[in-house]
Each structure stands twice: as C-alpha cells, then as structure tokens.
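Dear colleague,

Thank you for sharing your sequence with our group. We've completed the structure prediction you requested, and as agreed, I am returning the results in plain text so they can be pasted directly into your records. Please verify that the sequence below matches your submission; if there's any discrepancy, let me know and we will rerun it promptly.
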Amino acid sequence: MAGASPTTAFGQVVIGPPGSGKTTYCLGMSEFLRALGRRVAVVNLDPANEGLPYECAVDVGELVGLADVMDALRLGPNGGLLYCMEYLEANLDWLHAKLNPLRDHYFLFDCPGQLTAVHLVDSHYCTDPAKFISVLCTSLATMLHVELPHVNLLSKMDLIEHYGKLAFNLDYYTEVLDLSYLLDHLTSDPFFRHYRQLNEKLVQLIEDYSLVSFIPLNIQDKESVQRVLQAVDKANGYCFGVHEQRSLEAMMSAALGADFHFSSTLGIQERYLTPSDQSVEQEAMQL
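Please find the predicted structure tokens below.
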C-alpha cells in the first residue's frame, strides 16, 4: 500500500511462563514463515537459553549470560535474570546495532519465561477451573501492562486432555464465555467453596474488561500455525502492508476476522478432544 513506509518493521514478541513452548513456537513459526517466502530474523532475548534449536540472528547471550552472572554475583536464577535484563536495558545501543541491518526482516523475539505480543499458556490448564481462572487473570494483567497488539494462545493443543477432560466445549475456553458456569464447577470442590466470593470478584473483573480470548495452537499443525499467523498479522498490521502479494479473499479474511480456509473451533475440538458419552450437565451432576 502507498501509505506503508519501507522502514516499518513487523514481528512478534513471544512471551509466556516457563515451559509454555515459546522457543518451540519460534522454531515452528520461523520455519513456516520462511516457507511463505518471508525473511525472518529470530532474536533470542533469554540469557538462559542454551542450545537454541533455531537459527538465531541476534543472541543476547553474546552480550550477557545468565550462568556467568549467577557465578560472578552469586545470584539465584530470578535475580540473575533481572540483572541480565537491566544490563541489556543499559546497553540498548548494542541491540539497536544488531537489529538495524535486519529491518527488512520479520522479527520473532524469544523472551525470557520469567518476564511477565504473542502470549502462550498451556492448554491443559483448561481442565482445571481454578487454574483457568488464574490463566485468565495472568493474561489480562499481561495485556494491560505490555500495551502492545496482543494475541493469546493455548499452546500444546495435542496435550490438552493429558491431565483431565474439559468440562465444557472448547469454544467456552477460547471465547471466554459466561464464567458463572465455571464458578459452579469450583464450588463442587470443598476447598474452593470457601473462596467463592473471591472467585466471583475475579470473574467479574475478567468479564468487566472483556479483553481476553484465546487461539488454539499445535505448532506441529500447519493449519493451526496459519490460523495464529493470520491473527498476528491482523493485530500488528502486517496484512495491510506491501511485503507480500495477497488476494482480496485473504485481505478480507484478515480485516473482518473471517475464517475462509481453516477449521473452526468445533473442528479443532473434534481433532484433539476425546468425545464424551455424557453431556456436561450429566457430568456436573456426578460431581
């Protein structure tokens, strides 16, 4: 488009708790983007990352390493990581010098897990109502504090029922529907019954903001990755640039949020979730 500047840089800041799959996501997404013909630069901002599985264009480990900081200053992992991040902030000129030659690339920033934008959380938290409410609070807080175009992902969809079955259909969790039903499930546990008022206030806060929703992701599934990429491109404006040739259908799909090519949430549920012989109401009665 004529209004797009050739110096505009696009990319994703990949964040999330430790073990949520950020590095694996960067590997899979970078391979997928290169297959589309995009020039990709993966930037590792995690000084604890060793043995990176992807080709790294910029590695903060060249500037400061977590192990060295812990040994030299006798700090623990969290204190050492905070020092590394402060050291990077004090040496932003180093990072700018590394990034400037790559401005025509699409960036993937692999961030430390302890930092709290593509935000990944483990999908199996959906099987535990208390953990899912905690995930909703974390995601909302991240969206409000990071202040960037934001996409929340339920990662590792192929393992979603590894720790138990979902109480509701998948779209209940991805669209964050009426959470009062989740409160009813919590009260079936004697421990959480005593904290119903607290949980009600947390749910009210989440619903008052009405910002949080999720996209399911299995990084090994190309259709799943394409669906995520479509949402990210819409969020950061890449789909309206001149970097790729796009059909009218693709543009409308990104602009309107329509999904012309890929499975609906119901299709994803059928792929990854075991069908139940009982209705949700019957299972709730048993609880």
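Summary note from our side: Residues 86 and 259 are 42 Å apart (CA to CA).

Kind regards,
the structure core
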